[in-house]
Structures
1.
Amino acid sequence: MGSVSDKGIDRRTLDWWVDKAVQALVFIGGFSAVLFILGIFVFITKEGLGFIVGEEFSVTEFFTSPKWRPTSDNNPTYGALALIAGTASVTGLAMVVSVPFSLGAAIYISEFATGKTKELLKVLVELLAAIPSVVWGFIGLNMMNPLIIKLFDVPIGLNVLNSGVILGLMAAPIMTTLAEDALKAVPDSYREAAEAMGATRWQVSWRVALPAARHGLVAAILLGVGRGFGETMAVLMASGHSINLPSSPFDSVRALTATIAAELGETAVGSDHYQVLFTLGILLFVVTFAINLAADVFVRRSDRS
Amino acid sequence: MFEATERTLKDAQRERLVKRILLGSTILLILPVVIILAVLIWKGAPMMSFEFLFEEPTNGMTAGGIFPALIGTVWLVLVALLASVPVGVAAAIYLSEYAPDNKLTRLVNLAIINLAGVPSIVHALFGVGAFVLFAGFGTSILAASLTLAVMTLPIVIVSTRESLQAVPQAFREACWNMGATRWQTIRKVVLPNAVSGILTGVILEVSRTAGETAPIMFTGAAFFLPFLPESVFDQTMAMSLHLFVISTQVPDVPEALPYGVALVLVAMVLTMNAISVGVRTWLRGRRKW
Amino acid sequence: MVAAANKLSFSDVAVHYGDDVAFSGLSFDVRENEIFGIIGPAGSGKTSLLRAINRMDDFNSEMRVSGRIELDGHNVRAWRNVYSLRQRIGVVFPLPVGLPLTVYENVALSPRLRGIRKKAQLNEIVERCLRRAALWDEVKDRLDTLGSLLSGGQQQRLTIARALSQEPEVLLLDEFSIAVDPVTTMRIEDILKSLREELTIVLVTNLVQQARRLADRTAFMLGGELVEVGVTEELFTGGTRDDRTRQYLEGRFG
């Protein structure tokens, strides 16, 4: 075969150009995620900014006053404390209820279950995750509500307990799956070394696997918290309608997310009420972002070890 | 000589106890689903009929069928898929085949994780600000679907990327060594073997999209609509919103009706999930290397 | 008679991975239509040498190549259409790779990428390349089997068939017999001998006797340095210029 013609080395064929074009296109696709996340922040800030820089807004009132009365005619107040407390109490209860069970399930599935049982359990956990949030809210409304009233002899069944349990069930699959991934990432050699010294399965889990996976487990819990924190419909339907600081799990509360969902439809575009709801959105976005960032830090730490 | 010592007996006991506790946790987690499904079927089954699915609601939404809501959900899902699958697959290809290991890539990955974690109501606010107002689509199927698309984009990206990365690097290198461009390699060898992951992601996305309420509440879905939508610029009814309004804001609804709606919605979603699991299992059985 | 042209030439070539040096100061020529052997212990930089020729370092940001490598007198590093460069160079690596396409499509891939569409033409190319690679008889009745499901020896011959389907000018082989049974190794060695008239072959091998059987000239690399190049038979019959080469050939180390 003869020598190379100059055309051969210099000519950029169609394929060469197509490859470059594809490279650009997929980059745009990849970068779109960044654009959207930025876009979300930009757009909600745009609509909420008016309130923040306006005269109605005071940082102290927003964060420390439980008086949320944006629709009052003569003296609207925008104290979000009760809403923040609502979100915190529901999410807190959800975590208390579901973290032990989620971790327990993750440990069982990862360290004890085998073969078909393992597959079946994993599929069932996935199904738990598939139930839409509005259906969970419906369940809170129609099943948990009467149950709580009867069981605890209280007048209202739509409260922190109701939405807390529901949120716990909603956040459980993501925590279980991520915790299970974290445990799976622990090299088998660690476990085998312990087993060779005569440790039982549980001892291996407790002394070897769990400590080795601790960063991933923390990340799993954080993401579960994020999930609970950001949930809207279930909390809207199951936590009741009173805006107050809860003093017991049987109190009705209103979460930040539910407030936006409940009130946005009634506002006029550009009004103070409209804008403050966007401000709540900014708060939600920032906190979720912080939680995700923290989880990412933990995941990175687990990768490194 | 090899009698069980007292210590190993205690260990074995503790092992059994712990195992039972952990299994109990797992069952406690899964049991609610089973109970919920049972109750939904028990109370919602009476509503199931051909008319329920294919006729319009009557009597102020307290009777009749749910067809407009069903069709509306289908519209929303389809348009959302149209918008998100190409972008999602492109992003996954970028991350798996092109992206160097640098800060920009980390940023993209971080953005994807965050996008997946943004509360649904914040997505709704974004949809209102960006699609309804800024882009001028008004409250419409288009605005609602685009909002849903942004929300579920991470699902397609993650699942596609995983299946792309599952293709061994040796195949790519063999193609590159033959003088194939990156795109030719992707087109001929990598992508065809990642179709399973793409399919799984799409089906999962459909299931998530069909069930979402908050993102569509203010961007295009409505409850009392006299006409079926005729274009993407119209509003529409939707199953998820229908369930919400009917169980919270409509008086004098017969008990079975919302259960019926919930049952249909859950059945849709669980069927999609089951199909996705089925596809995954079937494809895993076909070894190609 | 005109002296055989240099197909490939290396001038003061070095390859670095970050701070590590794979090899440096490499200068040698490969003549057209010869089988050029490269021997040396593991880690002497032989694989990096091959990757530098067809610019596979483009895919590895850690790998830095300096110096001048020429194919037919043209600087490989400055080739504008790198894909056309790679198409002229066939590569066989230690691990056999059957692409997860049918056997037919494995061999038809390169022609298709170059625009050949006619079924008759593709059929002819596929059969010819599979025959040259001594694989035709074993697969002719099951061309629709997946290449990735063939045996190791068959996959390595499939790799050679694929390389031939590129219509290459140069064939690079990197320890092709490591993962393959001795019978297949013998068959491939016969194939290489028959290809000499059409191609230039660079054969990196850790099997010293294989170099003796196949290579016209052989280079000995040690610790990232080219120790010496010579006519194979001379090297093996005491004509080494460097003691290290003699020791390696006698099996003293490596």
2.
Amino acid sequence: MEDKEVVVYSSRTETLGFFFRQIWKYRNLILVFAQRDLKVKYAQTFIGLGWTVLQPLTALFIYTFFFGFLLNWKTDGIDYPVYVLSGLLGWNYFSYIVNSGAFGIQESAHLIKKIYFPKSIIPLSKTLTALVELGISLLLLVLLLIYFGQSLSWKIIFLPLVLLYNTVCGLCLVFWISVLATKKRDVLHLVPFLMYFGIWFSPVFFGSDLLPEQYKFVLDFNPMANVVELWRWSLFDFGAFKWIWVINFFIVMLFFMSGLYFYNRKESKLTDYL
Amino acid sequence: MDNSTAIRVNNLSKSYHLRHSMEDENGNSTSELWALRDVSFEIKKGEHVGIIGPNGSGKSTLLKVLAGITKPSSGEVHIYGRVASILDIGTGFHPELSGRENVFLNGQIHGFSRKEIQTKFDDIVAFSGIKKFIDEPVKNYSNGMYLRLAFSIMAHLDFDIYLFDEVLSVGDAEFQLETRDITSKLLKKGGTIINVSHVLSESRVDYSKVLFFKTGSLEKIGTTEVLNEYQRDNYNKFFEIVSKPPFYVFKQIQFKNSEIELINYGIKEESVLEDGLCSFQSFKLFFEVHLLEDVSFTIGVGFFDISNNLLFIITSLSKKVQAIEKKGKYLIEFAIPKSLLNNRIYSAELFFSKGADELILREEDFLLVKVSDRNLVNRILHPIKDTAMLAVPFEIIVRKGDEI
């Protein structure tokens, strides 16, 4: 008789090593779920993927009209539409991960209660979907760059690191929210709130010189403000490099790791609380 | 351990912490509920196992632990092989995606690669019998089509252990026959099947092992004699309930979907003897239903004896009455013919269907009734000293030799 793999279920908390092995074993599902989400999202819409371009494009027009044209916010040498879009890229990517990641487990409750797979697959697959949407928005940015004649900086080679920082910010929140939501469900209500107001604590729409000199440093403590600035820094060499970005990155990493640790301890119990 | 083991469970317990909205006097807002307590057993490869027990006995929790969906609170479970957990038919189906896409999605969620699924794809579609609709979104499927496709996927992918949670008892008769066929094929292939059920009528399935659960503990383990005991137990319970007036008891059911609402039901015009409903008088079963949409609706009641043999069925699908298909309220009365039921206990199953065959509700043991005939004619001197299942009205002519 051939040797089949043996699975043991017990009350022991699985190690982080096991956690990562399970994700590796089920890595295929990350892709499958992401494909499913994209298919469902665009399956029966008339212009399909066009929505992903149309939505930021419309937003861009509105922001440019109000903030750039009516309020005349200064963006230090970059055309306002380019400035806003480059800021929105990072923020929207982050917000997509947090929203869909935090609610994804609830949304997939019907599955989780019936079939075993590591639940962390869900936020990971949402991240993949977010990446696809980010890619499409990037196409829009390219068009804008050509139109406004904006040139790119060599620092674009750091973009993968910026993206990593951006992703970790999102997933860090997702894991912590999932952990805390097992204790108090109210945490989930905080998410839309956080996304709604958080954007105003990051220099997405305005340049940081809009703030009074003595309060500028406040933005530096917000990792997502770092990310938004980093996007522009790496794309256009916009603004000076700040070491606090690096320090914050490691702090966020620390939170991310501890989030993973607690999430792993709670993951098996998630099903019982759904 | 020899390698013929499929599942080994050692001292398994599972408790849930229930959260209350109010704190009790000790300031606790949670309480502990033991869904499983100290359960141990072993299942060999190729066995067909039935897990039985009343609602809330821990059967479904056990299945969830075996499927890895929920973790034990203490104890261990060893699983040797690939597990298909079919706790619900069509889990993981996405309504917006086509049948074809769902076959792949479903297979992949169960851990198969696209390639593995591709090789089985034609078989899956052939068995499901919905080839024509395979590229339609499954939200447009009827329940029956949905069921067939979902079951077909699970049946054709190569698992070692199949966990079924009462899913085999849904669907029409043809489907049930097919699933029985598939089940025996899976067993022949060396698959291990574990089937959870509180439905007694499945008792005729040939289990090689039966686990009987009661309030979270494994009460008995054995072969079909455990099943029989469970049935006797149930029967005794029924007997107690219906042996006092009014000699019948209905299950409390509520049914409402976007099209059909069950408003009321009951028995009318019964006449009661001192030990049961009188069988010389016909009694009437009535149902009030409200159709919220124009929909072709059929109501049916099947009568069973206590060993769960289906005796007869009455339905509203008759050419003699007006069709139930237009929006509005309906009162449906079935008269149970007099002198048909015998001095026995019967159970009745209620079913609703849309059109002629799309089952939308099936309530087993919907009605229990004790009938008395007080008529010795029927009981006369049968060698096994038992009353027949039915007292069928019959005609008889007796002629003496010189009158012929």
